[in-house]
Specification:
Distance between the termini of chain A: 31 Å
CATH topology of chain A: Porin
Number of strands of chain A: 17
Order of helices and strands of chain B: HHHHHHHHHHHH
Number of helices of chain B: 12
Structural class of chain A: mainly beta
CATH superfamily of chain A: membrane protein fhac: a member of the omp85/tpsb transporter family
CATH architecture of chain A: Beta Barrel
Number of strands of chain B: 0
Largest sheet of chain B: none
Distance between the termini of chain B: 77 Å
Radius of gyration of chain A: 21 Å
Strand content of chain A: over 45%
Radius of gyration of chain B: 23 Å
Number of domains of chain A: 1
Shape of chain A: globular
Order of helices and strands of chain A: HEEEEEEEEEEEEEEEEE
Largest interface: A-B, 31 and 32 residues
Oligomer: heterodimer
Largest sheet of chain A: 17 strands, antiparallel
Helix content of chain B: over 70%
Structural class of chain B: mainly alpha
């Protein structure tokens, strides 16, 4: 497992070192307190980002991030790493072929490696303000394989407003329990900006899951929104509420949750970012007798390098 | 017979031209009197406004735009002294803009800009937004080089962006470089509205404002739209 992870890292380093471009990176430390853990946890994280033009043919971007956390309740150490590389290759005047490979992994005792990939094509019809795209993507774990095909389009009638719509068909294969699921997901959204300080978006999606295990067939949906307010270079706050529901067709079981996270960032000087991130989640809100809530509060500091 | 017809035609044309020349002033004056008559402004305030409009007419400032401002102020029930001050500032911004346009551009181009009240108003607006005259000069020079027919509309968006970058405390030289890079690119002016959204998102990604400005300057020549730029810089 570790040799595969090291091979992925080496391959990305070789690709990046052969190009010249812009980079940005930051490191940070954080602490988290939540209602479902008896003790707080602390951690550190880092992020590296690179992008470069490849002559007149396109551009590439790559990112690497890592996070390590120590949980005081059981004195355990956990980690999470991610590597992603994406290439955008220009096709004609308006087209673009998009390829990406990446991986998420952990290096702790139960090390995991989750590679992902995608191939897509996007074009624009400027006179109709339309940008349709098609993409194939997938990811795999030791026991699970997911592949999906997505058709989507964006309609931008004016610069401050855009509408998105997509339909996705996915195949999920659980090799360990010999189960295959087929999913179809539809989504529509709207997003925009207000002046120079506020951006917002809202989207609604619905999906149908057909499974070889009759108990897993389900209908589900999600409504999510985001409002981000940035009045100056020193302050930003974002509210991102979402509501999810799932109905299991086999046993008529419902799951619902309403999550309300927010984050406030305060920039000290030019490179130090202090952030506060409270979040509250209400679960099973369709059933007053069983409903409950969980809270989580994180705060931390990041330093841009 | 042919001479008589020509004379009649000449007379009709002359009367038509005279009517076209006099009509807007007459209509504007009539509208001004009607607006003031129906307003809450005291007689002394009405007199001040009338004098201001006469002075604007004398210096050939477009009074139609001042009339719209007057109507807007009256509908918001702005007190007479504040309304007079606002109208005076509007008139002065037109005069300053005209003077600067003639100073910066060659005579033919300056006359064509001032001949279009909409373009003239766009530059006057930059004064009222509080943009420094040196920066307005730089903006006029940048956008006068554009080949687009929309270059003076683009200038207005460029001015708005410069002001927003100034409020973000970006170094003045770097802010002008950002606007210049966009002015030299083929990105439409209306897309400049999204540039500050790039800065906002850069904050979430811990990219400093100065670093983001450099990225935009670097990427702009290769971008046809702000969406293309977004993928290069974020």
């Amino acid at each position: 497992m570790r040799s595969r992870i090291l091979a992925t890292i080496s391959l990305m380093c070789i690709c990046i070192s052969s190009l010249s471009g812009v980079t940005s990176s930051y490191v940070g430390a954080f602490g988290t307190l939540s209602s479902f853990e008896t003790s707080p946890s602390i951690g550190a994280k880092g992020n590296f980002d690179f992008r470069s033009l490849v002559g007149n043919s396109g551009h590439v971007e790559a990112s690497a991030s890592a996070e390590i956390a120590f949980d005081f309740s059981d004195s355990s150490l956990s980690d999470w790493e991610s590597l992603e590389a994406t290439g955008y290759w220009y096709v004609g005047n308006e087209g673009e072929l998009i390829t990406s490979i990446g991986s998420q992994f952990t290096l702790a005792e139960d090390s995991t490696w989750i590679p992902d990939w995608s191939l897509g094509f996007r074009t624009t019809f400027p006179s109709w303000n339309l940008a349709p795209s098609v993409a194939y993507r997938g990811y795999v774990t030791d026991t699970y394989l997911s592949t999906a095909m997505e058709l989507s389009t964006t309609y931008t009638p004016r610069v401050e407003l855009a509408y998105d719509a997509s339909i996705t068909g996915a195949l999920e294969n659980y090799r360990d329990i010999v189960r295959t699921d087929r999913l179809i997901v539809g989504s529509v959204g709207i997003r925009g900006i207000v002046g120079y300080t506020t951006s917002w978006s809202t989207s609604v999606s619905g999906s149908y899951r057909e499974s070889s295990d009759p108990d897993e067939g389900a209908l589900s949906g999600q409504l999510e929104s985001k409002v981000m307010y940035t009045p100056s270079r020193h302050f930003q706050c974002a509210l991102t509420p979402s509501f999810q529901w799932e109905y299991h067709i086999g046993d008529h079981r419902w799951n619902t949750s309403l999550e309300v996270p927010m984050q406030a960032d305060v920039v000290l000087g030019t490179r130090t970012y202090l952030y506060f991130s409270p979040s509250i989640t209400f679960v099973d809100i369709h059933d007053p007798a069983a409903s409950s809530y969980e809270y989580r509060f994180s705060m931390g500091v990041d330093v841009a390098l | 017979m042919r001479n008589t017809s020509k004379r009649i035609l000449s007379c009709i044309l002359a009367v038509g031209l005279l009517a076209v020349t006099l009509l807007p002033g007459g209509v504007a004056k009539g509208r001004l009197e009607a607006i003031l008559h129906e307003s809450y402004l005291p007689p002394s305030g009405q007199q001040q406004v009338q004098q201001l409009f006469s002075s604007a007419e004398d210096s050939q400032v477009p009074t139609d735009i001042l009339l719209l401002r007057l109507q807007e102020g009256i509908s918001k029930r702005i007190p007479s002294p504040s309304l007079e001050l606002a109208l005076r500032a509007e008139k002065e911004s037109f005069e300053l803009a005209r003077s600067l346009i003639h100073k910066v551009l060659d005579e033919d181009e300056a006359s064509s800009v001032v001949a279009d009240p909409a373009n003239w108003a766009r530059i006057a607006t930059l004064y009222r937004q509080g943009i420094h005259e040196d920066d307005i000069t730089a903006l006029i020079l940048m956008f006068s080089q554009q080949k687009s027919r929309e270059k003076w509309t683009n200038l207005r968006y460029g001015g708005g962006l410069l002001l927003a970058l100034d409020r973000w405390e970006l170094n003045r030289g770097l802010a002008l470089d950002v606007v210049e890079a966009l002015a030299e690119s083929s990105i439409p002016g209306s897309d400049y509205l999204l540039v500050m959204d790039l800065f906002s998102r850069a904050l979430s990604l811990r990219i400093t404002v100065e670093e983001m400005a450099q990225r935009i300057i670097f990427a702009a020549p290769d971008c046809r739209s702000i969406t293309a730029m977004e993928r290069l810089v974020l």
